[in-house]
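Annual report, structural modelling task.

Input specification for the magnesium ion complex:
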Amino acid sequence: MISVPRLYGIVDAACFATMEDLMVFVGELVAGGCTLLQYRNKSGNARLMLGQARELRKPSRAKPALSLPKGVPAPHGLKLIMNDRADLCLVAEFDGVHVGRDDLLPESVRGIIGPHRWLGVSTHNPEQIMEADRTSADYLAIGPVFSTSSKARPDPVVGLEGVRRARQLTRKPLVAIGGITRENAASVIAAGADSVAVISDLLLGPRKSAEEFFRILR
Ligand code: TZP
Ligand code: MG
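The model returned the following structure:
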Protein backbone atom coordinates (compact mmCIF):
# COMPACT_ATOMS: atom_id res chain seq x y z
CA MET A 1 0.00 0.00 0.00
CA ILE A 2 1.32 3.44 -0.91
CA SER A 3 1.56 6.31 1.53
CA VAL A 4 0.10 9.61 0.31
CA PRO A 5 1.29 12.89 1.85
CA ARG A 6 -1.27 15.12 3.56
CA LEU A 7 -1.10 17.68 0.76
CA TYR A 8 -1.46 16.76 -2.90
CA GLY A 9 -0.85 19.85 -4.97
CA ILE A 10 -2.58 20.18 -8.31
CA VAL A 11 -0.87 22.28 -10.95
CA ASP A 12 -3.61 23.31 -13.36
CA ALA A 13 -1.99 24.74 -16.49
CA ALA A 14 -5.02 27.00 -17.03
CA CYS A 15 -4.02 28.99 -13.96
CA PHE A 16 -0.74 30.20 -15.48
CA ALA A 17 -0.09 32.73 -18.23
CA THR A 18 3.38 31.38 -19.02
CA MET A 19 5.43 28.25 -18.49
CA GLU A 20 7.79 30.31 -16.37
CA ASP A 21 4.93 31.25 -14.03
CA LEU A 22 3.99 27.58 -13.77
CA MET A 23 7.56 26.55 -12.98
CA VAL A 24 7.96 29.27 -10.35
CA PHE A 25 4.72 28.04 -8.75
CA VAL A 26 6.02 24.45 -8.67
CA GLY A 27 9.35 25.56 -7.23
CA GLU A 28 7.52 27.39 -4.45
CA LEU A 29 5.33 24.40 -3.67
CA VAL A 30 8.38 22.15 -3.42
CA ALA A 31 10.08 24.71 -1.19
CA GLY A 32 6.95 24.58 0.98
CA GLY A 33 7.34 20.83 1.42
CA CYS A 34 5.13 19.49 -1.37
CA THR A 35 6.29 16.05 -2.54
CA LEU A 36 3.27 14.99 -4.59
CA LEU A 37 1.99 17.04 -7.52
CA GLN A 38 -0.50 16.42 -10.28
CA TYR A 39 -0.11 18.09 -13.65
CA ARG A 40 -3.55 18.93 -15.05
CA ASN A 41 -4.08 20.43 -18.48
CA LYS A 42 -7.56 20.36 -19.99
CA SER A 43 -6.59 22.21 -23.17
CA GLY A 44 -6.63 18.99 -25.20
CA ASN A 45 -3.26 19.94 -26.69
CA ALA A 46 -1.12 16.82 -26.22
CA ARG A 47 2.06 18.39 -27.63
CA LEU A 48 1.80 21.27 -25.23
CA MET A 49 1.11 18.86 -22.37
CA LEU A 50 4.16 16.77 -23.16
CA GLY A 51 6.37 19.84 -23.45
CA GLN A 52 5.20 21.17 -20.10
CA ALA A 53 5.40 17.75 -18.45
CA ARG A 54 9.00 17.31 -19.60
CA GLU A 55 9.89 20.71 -18.18
CA LEU A 56 8.30 19.73 -14.89
CA ARG A 57 10.27 16.52 -14.76
CA LYS A 58 13.57 18.23 -15.51
CA PRO A 59 14.69 19.70 -12.18
CA SER A 60 14.77 16.31 -10.49
CA ARG A 61 15.93 14.40 -13.52
CA ALA A 62 18.93 12.81 -11.81
CA LYS A 63 18.85 9.06 -12.21
CA PRO A 64 20.10 6.74 -9.46
CA ALA A 65 23.50 5.12 -10.02
CA LEU A 66 22.15 1.60 -9.71
CA SER A 67 20.18 0.16 -12.59
CA LEU A 68 16.54 -0.56 -11.87
CA PRO A 69 14.45 -3.47 -13.16
CA LYS A 70 12.49 -2.73 -16.33
CA GLY A 71 9.33 -0.75 -15.64
CA VAL A 72 10.42 0.50 -12.22
CA PRO A 73 10.40 4.30 -12.36
CA ALA A 74 13.52 6.08 -11.12
CA PRO A 75 13.02 7.57 -7.66
CA HIS A 76 12.65 11.35 -7.85
CA GLY A 77 12.35 13.70 -4.90
CA LEU A 78 9.06 14.87 -6.29
CA LYS A 79 6.29 12.51 -7.32
CA LEU A 80 4.59 13.75 -10.47
CA ILE A 81 1.18 12.45 -11.48
CA MET A 82 -0.24 13.01 -14.96
CA ASN A 83 -3.92 13.79 -15.12
CA ASP A 84 -5.95 11.84 -17.72
CA ARG A 85 -3.14 10.57 -19.96
CA ALA A 86 -1.26 7.29 -19.44
CA ASP A 87 0.71 7.74 -22.66
CA LEU A 88 2.09 11.12 -21.61
CA CYS A 89 2.92 9.74 -18.16
CA LEU A 90 5.26 7.22 -19.74
CA VAL A 91 6.84 9.53 -22.28
CA ALA A 92 7.46 12.30 -19.72
CA GLU A 93 8.68 9.76 -17.14
CA PHE A 94 6.06 10.72 -14.59
CA ASP A 95 5.41 8.62 -11.50
CA GLY A 96 1.73 7.95 -12.03
CA VAL A 97 -1.59 8.73 -13.65
CA HIS A 98 -4.89 10.01 -12.32
CA VAL A 99 -8.05 9.09 -14.22
CA GLY A 100 -11.74 9.90 -13.99
CA ARG A 101 -14.94 8.76 -15.63
CA ASP A 102 -14.09 10.09 -19.09
CA ASP A 103 -10.65 8.49 -19.27
CA LEU A 104 -9.39 4.96 -19.90
CA LEU A 105 -10.61 2.40 -17.40
CA PRO A 106 -8.27 1.89 -14.43
CA GLU A 107 -7.21 -1.59 -15.57
CA SER A 108 -6.42 -0.31 -19.06
CA VAL A 109 -4.23 2.37 -17.51
CA ARG A 110 -2.58 -0.21 -15.27
CA GLY A 111 -1.77 -2.25 -18.36
CA ILE A 112 0.00 0.76 -19.85
CA ILE A 113 1.87 2.09 -16.81
CA GLY A 114 2.79 -1.25 -15.26
CA PRO A 115 2.66 -2.35 -11.63
CA HIS A 116 4.96 0.25 -10.04
CA ARG A 117 3.67 3.64 -11.11
CA TRP A 118 0.84 5.13 -9.06
CA LEU A 119 -2.72 4.95 -10.32
CA GLY A 120 -5.35 7.28 -8.88
CA VAL A 121 -9.05 7.09 -9.66
CA SER A 122 -11.70 9.80 -9.16
CA THR A 123 -14.97 8.86 -7.48
CA HIS A 124 -18.05 10.91 -6.70
CA ASN A 125 -20.46 8.57 -4.91
CA PRO A 126 -20.56 5.29 -2.95
CA GLU A 127 -21.13 3.11 -6.05
CA GLN A 128 -18.07 4.54 -7.77
CA ILE A 129 -15.98 4.09 -4.61
CA MET A 130 -16.95 0.41 -4.36
CA GLU A 131 -16.22 -0.09 -8.04
CA ALA A 132 -12.85 1.67 -7.91
CA ASP A 133 -11.95 -0.19 -4.72
CA ARG A 134 -12.03 -3.43 -6.69
CA THR A 135 -9.49 -2.14 -9.22
CA SER A 136 -5.71 -1.95 -8.88
CA ALA A 137 -5.92 1.78 -8.12
CA ASP A 138 -3.31 2.84 -5.56
CA TYR A 139 -5.47 5.64 -4.18
CA LEU A 140 -9.02 6.90 -4.62
CA ALA A 141 -10.09 10.52 -4.86
CA ILE A 142 -13.47 11.59 -3.51
CA GLY A 143 -15.14 14.87 -4.34
CA PRO A 144 -16.01 17.54 -4.83
CA VAL A 145 -16.15 17.79 -1.06
CA PHE A 146 -17.14 21.47 -1.20
CA SER A 147 -18.18 23.68 -4.08
CA THR A 148 -15.39 24.52 -6.49
CA SER A 149 -14.88 26.87 -9.38
CA SER A 150 -11.73 25.10 -10.59
CA LYS A 151 -13.53 22.35 -12.47
CA ALA A 152 -15.90 22.62 -15.41
CA ARG A 153 -19.21 20.78 -14.86
CA PRO A 154 -18.33 19.43 -11.40
CA ASP A 155 -20.25 16.49 -9.93
CA PRO A 156 -22.58 17.22 -7.01
CA VAL A 157 -20.87 18.22 -3.77
CA VAL A 158 -20.43 15.23 -1.45
CA GLY A 159 -19.66 17.18 1.74
CA LEU A 160 -17.86 15.83 4.79
CA GLU A 161 -20.53 13.11 4.96
CA GLY A 162 -19.41 11.90 1.54
CA VAL A 163 -15.84 11.65 2.83
CA ARG A 164 -16.99 9.69 5.91
CA ARG A 165 -18.96 7.29 3.72
CA ALA A 166 -16.02 6.86 1.36
CA ARG A 167 -13.78 6.05 4.33
CA GLN A 168 -16.12 3.24 5.31
CA LEU A 169 -16.07 1.76 1.82
CA THR A 170 -12.35 1.51 1.09
CA ARG A 171 -9.07 0.86 2.82
CA LYS A 172 -7.13 2.40 -0.04
CA PRO A 173 -5.57 5.81 0.62
CA LEU A 174 -8.30 8.42 0.23
CA VAL A 175 -7.61 11.82 -1.32
CA ALA A 176 -10.33 14.44 -0.84
CA ILE A 177 -10.73 17.14 -3.48
CA GLY A 178 -12.88 20.16 -4.25
CA GLY A 179 -13.06 23.48 -2.43
CA ILE A 180 -10.52 22.45 0.18
CA THR A 181 -8.72 25.31 1.90
CA ARG A 182 -6.53 25.83 4.95
CA GLU A 183 -9.75 26.77 6.75
CA ASN A 184 -11.58 23.49 6.19
CA ALA A 185 -8.76 20.98 5.54
CA ALA A 186 -8.58 19.71 9.14
CA SER A 187 -12.29 18.80 9.03
CA VAL A 188 -11.72 16.83 5.82
CA ILE A 189 -8.91 14.80 7.40
CA ALA A 190 -11.03 14.30 10.53
CA ALA A 191 -13.76 12.89 8.27
CA GLY A 192 -11.37 10.17 7.15
CA ALA A 193 -9.36 11.48 4.21
CA ASP A 194 -5.64 10.72 4.17
CA SER A 195 -4.78 13.66 1.98
CA VAL A 196 -6.24 16.83 0.47
CA ALA A 197 -5.83 17.73 -3.21
CA VAL A 198 -5.87 21.47 -3.78
CA ILE A 199 -5.80 23.91 -6.69
CA SER A 200 -7.07 27.38 -5.67
CA ASP A 201 -5.83 27.68 -2.13
CA LEU A 202 -2.25 27.18 -3.28
CA LEU A 203 -2.25 29.83 -5.98
CA LEU A 204 -1.60 32.93 -3.87
CA GLY A 205 1.69 32.44 -2.06
CA PRO A 206 2.22 28.73 -2.79
CA ARG A 207 5.14 28.23 -0.43
CA LYS A 208 3.42 29.76 2.58
CA SER A 209 0.17 28.03 1.72
CA ALA A 210 1.82 24.58 1.46
CA GLU A 211 3.70 25.13 4.71
CA GLU A 212 0.46 26.08 6.42
CA PHE A 213 -1.39 23.03 5.06
CA PHE A 214 1.36 20.77 6.43
CA ARG A 215 1.31 22.55 9.80
CA ILE A 216 -2.51 22.32 10.04
CA LEU A 217 -2.63 18.67 8.97
CA ARG A 218 0.31 17.37 11.01
N1 TZP B 1 -11.98 17.47 -9.28
C1 TZP B 1 -12.96 17.59 -8.40
S1 TZP B 1 -13.01 19.14 -7.71
C2 TZP B 1 -11.67 19.64 -8.61
C3 TZP B 1 -11.24 18.62 -9.41
C4 TZP B 1 -10.11 18.67 -10.34
C5 TZP B 1 -11.11 21.02 -8.53
C6 TZP B 1 -10.39 21.29 -7.23
O1 TZP B 1 -9.90 22.60 -7.20
P1 TZP B 1 -10.07 23.55 -5.95
O2 TZP B 1 -9.71 24.91 -6.47
O3 TZP B 1 -9.08 23.08 -4.91
O4 TZP B 1 -11.50 23.48 -5.49
MG1 MG C 1 -9.72 12.86 -16.25
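Residues 143-144, 148, 150-151, 154, 177-180, 198-200 surround TZP (ligand 1) (CB under 6 Å).
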